[in-house]
Amino acid sequence: MTLDLAAKVALLTGATMFTLAPQEQIGLHEIRLSDGPTGVRGLKFSGGRVVALFPNATLLASAWDADAAYEVGRILAEEALSQEIHVVLGPTINLHRSPLGGRLFEAYSEDPLLTGKLAAAYVRGMQDQGVAACLKHLIANESETDRNTVNSVVDEATLREVYLLPFEIAVEEADAWTMMAAYNDVNGAAATEQHHVNNEIVKGEWGYHGLIMSDWFATRTAAAAANGGLDLVMPGPGGPWGDALVEAVKNGEVDESVIDDHVNRLLLLADRVGALGEEPREFPGGLPAPDSDVRKEQLTRLAASGMTVLRNENAALPLARGTRVALIGRHAVQTIDMGGGSAQVNPPYQASVADGLTALLDDVTVTDGVEVRTRPVPARGGFLTDPVTGKPGIRVQLLDADGTELEDRFCPQSSTMVGMDDDFAGVVASAVLRGRVSAGGPVELGVLGAGRWLVEAGEESLRYRLDLTGNGFGEAVLAPPLRVDRFVAAEGDILTARVELPSDGTFANKGLFGLLGHVAPRSTVDVLDDAVRAASGADVAVVVVGLTEEQETESVDKTTLALPGAQDALVEAVAGAARRTVVVVNAATPVLMPWRDRVDAVLWAGLPGQEGGHAVAAALLGDIEPAGRLVSTFPAADGGSPAWSVTPVDGRLPYDEGPFIGYRGHYAGRAPEPVFWFGHGLGYASWDYSDARLTGSDQPEVMVTVTNTGTRASREVVQVYLRPDDAAQPIRLAGWTAVKVKPGESARVTVHTDSRMWRVWNTTSGEWERASGGQLLIARGLGDIRATL
Ligand code: BGC
């Protein structure tokens, strides 16, 4: 059976938001895709199935443990299989270039070797179960500002030695079945049209047989993208290929063999995931539910093992079991377990640190902290309830242009996606959102989403219009306009908001809509007073601070690394009053800690997933050792990184620091001494290093004896860095090995250095060369170098 040109081209655009069309004549079945990377969300963009929420990528990476990454890939595959999903859109393997990048929480690290090795393990874990992984986003997509139009300008050597390296490793070591081309341009050509990267390097030099799909709505052209190595346009239906691509083949702009190559790659993917043949794949039943004990154990262990002890004076941690703890902070009661954007999932529950610590300790007082958000979020914690069922959440009625009801839905997240995940045939012209207010007194109420609004609560009503600023998919879907106003509510009042959706533009009749609401904030002075009182009455104050999905999100970058709100003042106030102060940082990426010398301990906890609070508690008490090592360097101040600005100038974002990102640039003196180096992490032991030796000349290996001089069994990550003699070449991680050692005992550890770290790209000859000589440093992060060979 052969397909004609139009039928072939039809396969190369998605059928829906997250599916690919079947083609019965050739035995091709529907292929179903889902985000990734830290939970398999399913076919709906939001409000979909309840699925397991994993620790975020930086927290997983902080374990420096390929076996754990493999396990995560395997469990994610199970989550996919139980929803009949064939492709998971992850891992994200862009690098932490500037710490301002909003989406770094989704990506592993600032280091290409660590990122590539963990990605390869994750991909193997997933694909060994017959579920495809997707490496994203190819390439030079390290920040979000103007992501649809920015031109990342990167020299060829840096592109290959740094940004392409994780993709190369994951292709070589795990043969990832798909990749995703990014939104941005690279050196003047769209990532979806990057002949040089997609065709010459990835499919040519690396011999990649997998499929390259576009990021969602990223494809701009027919001929240029098809010729530029893009195999599949996502999502669909619609988009720039279809008839235009058929026409481009007919008029000779695109050779039909190019179309055939794209189709072959699609069919290979289908074959690999069991979607090609007489019968569609049978999916296994009986896999662990997202809230099963199996998942609880896995997710707690994976989260806690990556948590990182940044400071620990006088063995303040782990906490003894009888300790009286004052637990303080907004993040203690509303722990942030995931970042914002397409990585968000709908988890069965999210355990807060308050839940976790009160479950393990008898004497814990819990005190809410200062406000941490400037942008209100959809109502949570039962502040609004569905007037029909009484459940936490809201009721949304969707109407067509005639006012006929298309659907009446309950939205537990107090928000809903319109026009993208809908199963009905009509077009939504307006919606009515309703929630019952569960608290009386001064409250802030409002709405989320573009359109003309009529908002009514109690006796009051307001009319206004919210417009999109034209920032594309990211804005309409991930960060739509919103407004809140102060009301004095009576308990039981119903907040009703009617909206007429915009009916023109790309995101006509589409977007995220919701109701916002919370008790009006208390004054900071009152909150600090309460915190100080609580802290002075306990043995230890544990303050949980952090970022929220306002800072750690797809589609928006940060502007500062400072903690939002008056959280620094809260820590200072507590540290001044408490006998001992332990700070838990609930954020995926570096934050500034001006108080760090005045507190006893700092535990970095990442965005720990649905078991987050239990994992933090286990780490604080030492039930699971927080044996993490940082995956990014923590600068001392805003601006204190080798690459800082993420704002394009005249559309260009030059990667001027070249290969000197993160620790590489700090070490070369291109940025001030950081507060905590990449690779830093104390665990709960101390270590002696002795008898370091170098073996193997072509592919050097390092042997060293590590002795646990602490009082607890612990896991050490022995890191080896190559410092080339040529100062134009940055220092780089060349390998690592982790080992578990009992107190008082030693282990002889071998670290292989990766051959790819000994290469240098010669731009003139267009070939790899071997790096000049250099030294190997054995270090616990570059702030603590133990031997030089
Ligand atoms: C993101 C991708 C994601 C896609 C589908 C885009 O906004 O950049 O990473 O896979 O949406 O949700």
UniProtKB/TrEMBL annotation:
Keywords linked to the UniProt accession: Carbohydrate metabolism, Glycosidase, Hydrolase
Family recorded in the similarity comment: Belongs to the glycosyl hydrolase 3 family.
Domain Fibronectin type III-like: from-to ranges: 716-782
Protein name: Beta-glucosidase
Pfam families reported in the protein's UniProt record: Fn3-like, Glyco_hydro_3, Glyco_hydro_3_C
